[in-house]
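Action item from last meeting closed. Structure (230 res):
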């Protein structure tokens, strides 16, 4: 048991060092974008016929909870920029995001990231609140993890309020159930979503489908007011 725990701790440490040194990776973020320029791109695109961010992620960056489109408002600019780079290169697979991100230059990706990071977190919509029992189960998992199976608490990396920690761990507060279920299920199957997701592969593999649904429900209800990185 002790050997397994130590092995996991070493894996975490190695991943943290890798992410800290990630400036050489494709999609690495500078986080020095122009907010005003990013707003124009998000609302108008970069050329006629080019899809605009706001058509899916909405003008306020709140996303679409029912459709599973994630909120971007208030997420760290380096995180958004890096993910756009991954989409553009095909490292992170998404047919819709690849077309959009590949049409942007690195500077434009930085600008869009800066714009969405500058937006205030959207207001929580109680009309799509999940079942209380599911939320309660998810809260326990989020705050305590599954010690017997060495699954760490989500709060340890994403913060007790889901506001994220620094540039590496994005805010989760308010992300839709559909989006969180999709992402957690990807990691649960062992699929590597992007170069930074090895840590999530270790955690999600021990979650059951019911636990994934419960976690997604709780994360969706977390207060938006605390959605800025700590």
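Sequence:
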């Amino acid at each position: 048991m002790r050997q397994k725990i130590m092995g996991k701790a070493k894996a975490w440490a190695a991943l943290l060092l890798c992410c800290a040194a990630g400036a050489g990776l494709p999609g690495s973020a500078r986080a020095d974008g122009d907010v005003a320029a990013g707003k124009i791109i998000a609302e108008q695109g970069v050329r006629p016929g080019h899809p605009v961010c706001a058509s899916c992620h909405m003008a306020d960056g709140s996303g679409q909870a029912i459709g599973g489109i994630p909120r971007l408002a208030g997420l760290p600019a380096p995180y958004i920029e890096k993910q756009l780079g991954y989409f553009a290169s095909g490292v992170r697979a998404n047919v819709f995001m690849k077309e959009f991100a590949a049409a942007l230059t690195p500077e434009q990706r930085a600008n869009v990231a800066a714009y969405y990071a500058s937006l205030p977190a959207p207001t929580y919509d109680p009309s799509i609140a999940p079942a209380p029992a599911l939320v309660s189960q998810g809260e326990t998992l989020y705050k305590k993890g599954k010690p017997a199976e060495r699954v760490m608490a989500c709060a340890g990396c994403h913060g007790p309020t889901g506001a994220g920690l620094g540039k590496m761990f994005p805010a989760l507060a308010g992300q839709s159930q559909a989006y969180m279920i999709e992402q957690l299920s990807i990691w649960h199957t062992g699929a590597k979503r992007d170069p930074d997701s090895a840590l999530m592969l270790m955690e999600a593999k021990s979650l059951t489908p019911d636990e994934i649904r419960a976690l997604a429900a709780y994360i969706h209800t977390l207060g938006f007011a605390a959605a800025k990185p700590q």
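Note appended to the action item: The first helix runs from residue 2 to 20.
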